[in-house]
Amino acid sequence: MPLSVIEPSQLPKEQASKLLPGETVHHFSFIDSKGGGCAKASTAKQWMLVTNQRILFEAAVKEGSGATEKFVHQSGTIPMAKVSFVGTANSTTQEGCSGKKTSSLRINSSGGEIVLAIPTPEEAGRIQGVIDEIVSKK
């Protein structure tokens, strides 16, 4: 299946300015991440950009595990040439007074793993498919 191409002119200026010469954009999305448990939820604008060379993000990244697990807002870049695995995971965690369903995109790169919060399993699967397609061509 051929990858779709997004023209840099179709991107917001902030993200378009991060592109390197010769990069082809195959995925861009804003990711709304809610927080706050039972209290008034706050929304942080986050995004993910996938090119033929890199994965760029400003998103909620999982840190720790078990009782110390939390998602923190981070920005970063993962070179596509370093990606060795990409997968998705879905879970339900107790947050405040209710259970919260979470989806995540897991990316292994140079022996380390980064886990990004993604709003829905469908979106996580779509991004995984784009990255898989690019990595399989390298």
**Rg calc:** 15 Å
| Helix/strand structural class | mainly beta
Q: Low-confidence stretches at least 5 residues in length (pLDDT < 50)?
A: 35-43
Q: What general form does the structure show?
A: globular
What strand line-up does the widest sheet have?
A: 1-2-3-4
* Count of DSSP-assigned helices: 2
Mean pLDDT: 86
Strand percentage: over 45%
Distance between the termini: 16 Å
Main sheet characteristics: 4 strands, antiparallel
Name the helicity range: 10-25%
Taken in chain order, the helices and strands follow as HEEEEEEEH
Number of strands: 7
Précis, in short:
With 138 residues, this protein is mainly beta. The protein has helices at 13-16, 121-136; strands spanning 25-35, 42-51, 54-63, 70-79, 83-95, 98-109, 112-118.
Description of the molecule:
This protein is mostly beta strands. The protein has helices at residues 13-16, 121-136, and strands spanning 25-35, 42-51, 54-63, 70-79, 83-95, 98-109, 112-118. The protein has a 4-stranded antiparallel sheet, covered by helices on one side. It has a 3-stranded antiparallel sheet with strand order 5-6-7. A hairpin with a 2-residue loop joins β2 and β3. The radius of gyration is 15 Å and the shape is globular. It starts with 12 loop residues before the first helix and ends with a helix. Residues 35-43 have low confidence and may be disordered.
Task: Summarize this structure as a short list of keywords or feature phrases.
four-stranded antiparallel beta sheet, globular, 138 residues, 2 helices, three-stranded antiparallel beta sheet, 14% helix, mainly beta
